[in-house]
From TrEMBL:
InterPro entries: Aldlse_KDPG_KHG, Aldolase_TIM. One of its GO terms (molecular function) is 2-dehydro-3-deoxy-6-phosphogalactonate aldolase activity. This is 2-dehydro-3-deoxy-6-phosphogalactonate aldolase. Its EC number is 4.1.2.21. Homotrimer. Keywords: Carbohydrate metabolism, Lyase. It comes from Neoroseomonas soli. Gene3D superfamilies: Aldolase class I. Pathway: Carbohydrate acid metabolism. SUPFAM superfamilies: Aldolase (SSF51569). NCBIfam families: PRK09140.1.
């Protein structure tokens, strides 16, 4: 299982922080309808494992369903049982990458420094989440890609929007984790779909 084909289809990772299980299927359908097929439910959302289960049951055959804000190996096991196929962490923890890979998950751990990036790649990270991206600039991605192994996928997260994505894309980012500029707790499916369209256009996928 690889993240690359999903990013090639659409490089937007939809981060549904705060989503509730009873609304997640409608939001998921809106995202998939607009071509956003990578959906992440952060574990600090209400009943996140239930939301992941519902997304997996409804869309697992055509979307990559993942869990974000994963910080322990017990959580890795729990998200696998819920049906997740993608693990995203907020920080550099090589042990979580190893745990995820051992369970067949795609691993996209968080990093901020070159040392963290190389440490995570050394244990098999599939992609790297640059977080918090607000702390750096697109120029950092360009510099990192000059020294990291060829083909390394960097996904900035934090501050991603239709306005900011083009600069990161030009710098070489392979994808973009988008949270509050796509979904905020309480948003309806129609509003999310409209934002998804704008994000696709910003990423050059219109």
């Amino acid at each position: 299982m690889s993240l690359a084909p999903w990013l090639d289809a659409c490089p937007i990772v939809a981060i549904l922080r705060g989503v509730k299980p009873e609304e997640v299927e409608a939001i998921g359908a809106a995202l998939i309808g607009e071509g956003l097929n990578i959906i992440e439910v952060p574990l600090n959302s209400p009943k996140p494992l239930e939301s992941i289960r519902r997304l997996h049951a409804a869309f697992g055959d055509r979307a990559l369903i993942g869990a974000g804000t994963v910080t322990t190996e017990d959580e890795v096991s729990a998200i696998v049982r819920a049906g997740a196929r993608l693990m995203v962490t907020p920080h550099c923890d090589p042990q979580l990458v190893l745990a995820a890979r051992a369970r067949g998950l795609i691993a996209c751990p968080g990093f901020l420094t070159p040392a963290e990036a190389f440490a995570l790649l050394a244990v098999g990270a599939d992609a790297l989440k640059l977080f918090p991206a607000e702390a750096v600039s697109p120029a950092v991605v360009k510099s990192l890609l000059a020294v990291l192994p060829k083909g390394t996928a960097i996904l900035p997260v934090g501050g991603m929007s239709a306005e900011t994505i083009p600069a990161w894309k030009s710098a070489g980012a392979a994808g973009f984790g988008v949270g509050s500029s796509l979904y905020r707790p309480g948003d309806g499916a129609e509003a999310v779909a409209a934002r998804a369209r704008a994000l696709r256009q910003a990423a050059g996928m219109a």
